Amino acid sequence: MVGPTADAAPLKSFFSGVTAAEVRSTSAVLWTQAFRDGGDVVLQVAGRTFVLRHRSADDDTVRVLVGKLRPDTRYTYRFIQGPEARAGRFRTAPKPTSTRAIDFDVTGDADASRAPGSTKPFFNNFETYAAMAAEPIDFAVNLGDTIYSDSSVTGQPPALTVPQKWDKYKLNLAMLALQQLRASAGVYNQWDDHEFVDDFSRAENGEALYAAGKKAFLNYMPATYTKQLGLYRTFRWGKNVELFFLDERSFRSAKASAGGVCDNPAGKPDLAPTAPQPVRDAFAALIPTLAKPASAACLAAINDPSRTMLGAQQLKRFESDIRRSTATWKVILTEDPIQQFYALPYDRWEGYASERRALLQFLQADVKNVVFLATDTHADFYNEVRLQTLEPGGPIGTGIYEMVTGPVATTTFAKEIDGAVGSPGSGSLITALFFKPQPPRGLGMPCAAPDVYSYAHVHVTSTSLTITPRNANGQPVKEAGDQPCGPFTLQAR
Questions:
Q1: How confident is residue 286, by pLDDT bands cut at 50, 70 and 90?
Q2: How far, in Å, are 255, 281, 295 from residue 261 at the CA level?
Q3: Could you give the CA distance from residue 130 to residue 108 in angstroms, rounded to a whole number?
Q4: Alpha-carbon distance values, 345 to 131, 273, 341, 348, 363 (Å)
Q5: Sheet holding 41-45, edge to edge
Q6: Homologous superfamily of 97-256+304-491 in CATH?
Q7: Where in the sequence of the chain do the CATH 2.60.40.380 domains occur?
Q8: Predicted pLDDT at 5
């Protein structure tokens, strides 16, 4: 049996489940959490046995890099401590010459917090992860906000220390659906802001919080970290796919809105500083602060070429790696969307406009068959990643597309907009009036579903890449009016 069953007796050991991570063609990192008062943990995999010691300094989590595996092979592994055992499985990546199709799922943004006095999760039971676990995928990606250190659930104090963040991971990993996913396939883990705090940057929030978030994440979400590149890394899956994970928290500059330079007359950051004034005027009846133009200082900060999202060293390494990649499809896993939304751009790529434009122009000129996959926005949005959309001169495209998906369990985009505007239904209204219509009236999104728990299923061959947004029941995501979102198929050039 792989993973727990609904009526399984609770375990002292392995109560946070098991997982395989950082899977390559000949290696994988295997992880679990031991019972503190138990002895060493034994791992059995590929006919070999490993004896692992656990330490309270790591909250009794253990991990081991297992090498000398065979490419494109299914493995079952087993952790044992005393009388208890837990098993999991994963598949290694094919050799770079293999042309077989690859299937994987992507999602993010999961919060298992309870309201005060409640024993049930506030949002849901992580059904999205369960739907992913039920699919015959090669691997999954847990793309950011793997915990919520600062939950939006009322009455939840922020988790700022390592032990407090450990507790958040244990809270999420106590969810059966997440344990099922992690035991059923290899999972690549990536952080975003809520592993630290909302809209985190080291420049604004400090080194101590970064260190706490980093340690807790690496204890519970096995990933490869280096001081020079953070969580940036790449993974090759046969001839068809190479994954590029961007670390957008370790090296970024402070937001353009830091220090209040972008505050509107109400004392809050301008909701859409980069939107042309005619667009702002069209929504001024709903959001009166848009009637006044955004400040020149705010726009100058957003466009400042000295501000960076990735940092010079990571950006240089990424551009070198993706330029040299021989994979047919280059799939960029970005913690924060890179397409244009205009609304509250500060924490996304739009808030680092100079580096965004330079990166897109580089990819457009030098790299074929690029796709962005993102989370963070708590909605399903699919669109071309344009250099500009509503600015004077009209849309300037790149031919590169991005799928934003999720969340698993937190406030959806539509409800966040309702709260920000102070009017129920505002999120759906803005979607209908701005995200769906074609330029110059709107962004012309082929898919805009702002109020659904979801993930993206990706099927890749040597000639095409198909993205299918799916809801928490594993069914196709639908927009208002029961219109399906996708599937979206891109043809290789």
A1: confident
A2: 10, 21, 8
A3: 13
A4: 31, 8, 7, 5, 22
A5: 48-52, 41-45, 74-81, 84-91
A6: Alkaline phosphatase D (PhoD) (3.60.21.70)
A7: 1-92
A8: 38
Tokens at 250, concatenated:
């370790």
Q: Phi/psi of residue 283, each to 5°?
A: -110, 10
- Across residues 105-114, what is the average pLDDT? 98
Confidence tier at 92 by pLDDT (50, 70, 90): very high
Q: Is residue 86 within 8 Å of residue 180, measured between CB atoms?
A: no
Question: What is the spatial distance between Cα 251 and Cα 403, in angstroms, rounded to a whole number?
Answer: 24
pLDDT at 7: 38
pLDDT tens readout for residues 375-398: 999 999 999 999 999 999 999 999
Whole-angstrom Cα distance, residue 341 to residue 222? 32
Please give the structure tokens belonging to residue 59: 């909250």
Cα–Cα distance list, 366 to 86, 88, 316, 362 (Å): 46, 40, 14, 6
Q: How far apart are CA 354 and CA 338, in angstroms?
A: 12
List Cα–Cα distances, 156 to 191, 208, 438, in angstroms.
21, 21, 41
Q: Tell me: the pLDDT tens digits for 439-491?
A: 999 999 999 999 999 999 999 999 999 999 999 999 999 998 889 999 999 99
Query: In this structure, are residues 76 and 2 in contact, taking their beta carbons and an 8 Å threshold?
Result: yes
Grade residue 10 by pLDDT with cuts at 50, 70 and 90: low
pLDDT given for residue 105 in this prediction: 98
Q: How many residues does the chain have?
A: 493
Which ranges in the chain are annotated with CATH 3.60.21.70? 97-256+304-491
Burial class of residue 37 in the structure, from the number of CB atoms within 10 Å of its CB (0-12 exposed, 13-18 middle, 19+ buried) = exposed
Q: Which residues pair with 74 in a beta bridge?
A: 91
Could you tell me the two tokens for 182?
A: 């992690």
Q: 1-92: what fold?
A: Immunoglobulin-like (2.60.40)
Model confidence, pTM: 0.96
16: its two tokens: 């946070």
